[in-house]
Design a protein that fits this description.
Blueprint: H1 4-14, H2 44-68, H3 71-90, H4 92-114
Amino acid sequence: MLNYTGVLIAHLKRIKLVNNVVELSKYRNFSIDKDHEQNIDLTSEQIKKLENLRDDIEKLLNTATAVHGEPLGVGLAAGRYAAMKLYQMHGRAETMAFFDSCIQTVEMSEDISVN
């Protein structure tokens, strides 16, 4: 099973944004069994598979938004699902750091598109 934190870091290293992202491993709940540590070195095939998964889920969410006409509802439902699953798998600090890094990425994207 792939570690989502590792996937995010590996992906960001590929696009050279790693210096602007929180090192999630620093926030890891140290009470979590160390046997669950996973290698974050992914092959290009694994990264591509995860990128496709991400893109497919975003398409599903966009479709649900269009069908239901409720972008806030879809966003809240997806965010709630993600927050709860990540918390169960990685703990509070790592989950909060992940969402903070997502927001920082959007902010950087907005800054780039404005300039």
